[in-house]
Amino acid sequence: MAEVDSPWRIDPVTLTGSLVELVPLAPEHHDGLVDAARDGEMWDRWYTSVPEPDGMRAEVDRRLSLAERGEMVPFTAVRRSDGAALGMTTYYALDPVVPRLEIGYTWNRQSAHGAGTNAESKLLLLTHAFDVLGCQCVGFRTQWQNRQSQEAIERLGARRDGVLRAYGRHRNGVLKDVVMYSVLAHEWPEVRAGLEHRLRHRR
């Protein structure tokens, strides 16, 4: 068993589905991610962490720095039909002892919402986490105000664990409450079946 303070070095990997490909985040993805963020002005919602176009370079650098330290595994989501960047997602809160991780810091261009790419991205990430990395638990968290995100996580089949109040602050300084969800290893087959059904029917 890994030591508690041992970093969990998860190798960068490309995860490929029929609609979307998750590729290791790289500096050259910057322009495509700026275009994705401008689609619907995704940053203009105070309760989200979508970077503004002028801050995209710093956000890419931040995620890559965390990856270098073994604290995050960042991906760029790319639409397979045309190669357009859709957004970003990560593995983070890596705990090798359980083992456990969380999927988050996720955003996608607005025009892709409802197209099935987010559901397939989550299927790819969960499959790798449970079937390859051997996770016993995969967590999700979102802001209390972000009901759209809560509904999306619940549609994945994750169970709501509870709310952490005053867990941190939004970028405008307001205290934020965080809603926690998780999927356990024994629940994964049912969750996978539900996601596969959704994708077959593109819902």
TrEMBL record:
KW Transferase (keyword) present: yes
Lineage top rank: taxon: Bacteria
UniProt keyword terms in alphabetical order: Transferase
Entry annotated with the keyword Glycosyltransferase: no
PROSITE patterns for the chain: GNAT (PS51186)
InterPro entries to which the protein is assigned, alphabetical: Acyl_CoA_acyltransferase, GNAT_dom
Residue span(s) of domain N-acetyltransferase: 20-185
SUPFAM superfamilies from the UniProt entry: Acyl-CoA N-acyltransferases (Nat)
Pfam family, one: Acetyltransf_3
Molecular function in Gene Ontology: acyltransferase activity, transferring groups other than amino-acyl groups
Protein name: GNAT family N-acetyltransferase
Organism: Tomitella fengzijianii
